[in-house]
Design brief:
The protein has 344 residues and is mostly helical. 54% of the residues lie in helices and 2% in strands. The longest helix has 27 residues.
Length: 344
């Protein structure tokens, strides 16, 4: 098969004619708008541009003018009055059960006091004296003047609520962490730990309150003192959990090492409570301190019963509660089974 050859071009090709436009149209050139110029007036950053037509005024009202408005001032005064009234009603309702000024007294602590108090709770064996410091409420030197206890920051023997509250929260978080390290964590472990700790503290306070009622022990700040003293056990519980977890490698209170650490923290806490609560459950004017309305000499038979109650609370009750708080589930299989049951 052969290709056909192309025909040769003609000797003279016609010239090309380009069309010429008859009407010329002008197309405007597209340019970007000029950058905004900085303004020194108060309209800088306003979305309205700061200028309108030829007036050059601002549409945004000034804040100072708003505050000078009589309507705004009246609304501010009404809101402030309503807030003060609500705060006063709240304080009146709360003061029916707990005195806010008295509660502030237990949180009046300092860093040196917290460190010394922690050492006292863990090593109370050689501490002297155990009596609380008192000062007269008036500048007069008359023997009938009222006396008050110094705040915790000024007296190492004064009970506080800062350490018990912090120890309570730390115990819940530490127990949850140790459960996770043992592989026994489940979503409800934090709630169960917090509920157990709260029930223990509640039962302890109710038992102490019932005992003080039976033994006719009266004190102006007795309830808050008992709440504070009932929370110091968490310091020994935390130390027992940490040291036992390190020694036994997270296997709980097993072997002689775990029980030895638990026994030491228990006896230290019991001795601390026995010495500290002596001036709450056994009020006596002897001791060189001024007598207040709640410090009076008790009869021999009444003092014997109070001593027995103090010993029972400091050793028997504390041993049971600290054993409950330091008990851990070292078997991950049981925790997983419990989590499956809860999830089902």
């Amino acid at each position: 098969m052969q290709r056909s050859s192309y025909a040769p071009p003609p000797p003279h090709s016609p010239p090309l004619h380009h069309p010429v436009p008859q009407h010329v149209s002008t197309v405007p050139m597209m340019r970007s708008p000029p950058p905004p110029q900085s303004q020194s007036n108060s309209n800088y950053g306003s979305p309205y541009g700061g200028q309108a037509g030829g007036g050059g005024g601002s549409f945004a009202p000034a804040f100072g003018g708003f505050m000078n408005d009589p309507t705004a001032q009246m609304g501010y005064q009404v809101g402030k009055t309503a807030l003060n009234a609500g705060q006063e009603i709240f304080e009146q309702n709360v003061n029916r059960y707990v005195s806010i000024p008295a509660l502030k007294h237990y949180f009046n602590v300092s860093t040196p006091y917290v460190l010394r108090k922690l050492l006292l709770v863990l090593f109370p064996w050689r501490h002297r004296p155990w009596s609380r410091e008192q000062r007269p409420s008036t500048s007069s030197s008359s023997p009938d003047a009222n006396y008050y206890f110094l705040p915790p920051r000024d007296d190492i023997n004064s009970p506080d609520m800062y350490i018990p509250v912090m120890a309570f929260v730390t115990y819940i978080l530490l127990s949850t962490l140790l459960a996770g390290l043992r592989g026994a964590f489940h979503p409800e472990v934090m709630g169960l730990t917090a509920t157990t700790a709260f029930v223990v503290v509640l039962l302890e306070i109710l038992g102490l309150k019932f005992g003080t009622y039976i033994l006719s022990i009266s004190n102006d700040s007795q309830l808050l003192d008992l709440v504070a003293y009932s929370g110091y056990k968490f310091v020994g519980v935390i130390v027992s959990l940490v040291v036992t977890g390190i020694v036994n490698r997270g296997q709980g209170r097993r072997g002689w090492a775990g029980w030895t650490i638990f026994a030491y923290t228990f006896f230290a806490n019991a001795f601390f409570l026995l010495r500290s609560l002596k001036y709450v459950l056994l009020p006596d004017a002897a001791g060189g301190h001024p007598a207040s309305s709640s410090m009076h000499t008790v009869a021999r038979s009444q003092r014997t019963r109070r001593t027995q109650f103090l010993f029972f609370y400091s050793y028997i009750v504390q041993c049971i509660f600290m054993w409950i708080l330091t008990r851990q589930d070292a078997n991950p299989g049981q925790a997983k089974a419990a989590a499956k049951i809860v999830g089902a």
